[in-house]
Amino acid sequence: MTGRHEDGEVVYDSHRYKRHLRGWLSYAFASEVFVIVSLTLFLPICLEQFARDNGYLLPDKTVPCTTIPSGPPIERRDSLAEDEQRCVVKLGWLWIDSASFSLYVNSISVALQALTVVSMGNIADHPPHRKRLLLSFAFFGAIAATLFLLLPSSSPLWPVSALLGICANVGFGASIVAMNAYLPTLARHSEEVVNRRAELHEALLGTGAPRTSNGGSHVAESLDVHPEAEAQEPLLSSEPLSSSQDLHEGHASPEIESLKVAYATSLSRATSRISSQGIALGYAAGILLLLVALIPVTLLHGTTFALRLAIGLSGIWWALFSLPAALWLPSTTSENATPAELEWGAEDAESANSTKEWSASREIVNAWKRLGGMLRWREIKKLRNTFQYLAAWFLLSDGFTTITSTAILFAKTSLHMPASSLILIGIITPVSGIAGSLAWPYVQRRFAWTNLRVLVTLVCLASLVPAYGCLGFLSVFKEGKVKFGGLTAPGEIYVLAVYFGSVYGAFQGYARAFYSELIPRGEEARWYALFSITDKSSSFVGPLVVGIIADTTGNIRYAFFFLVFMVWLAVPVLLGIDVVRGRGDADRYKYRA
Question: What superkingdom heads the lineage (predicted)?
Answer without folding.
Answer: Eukaryota
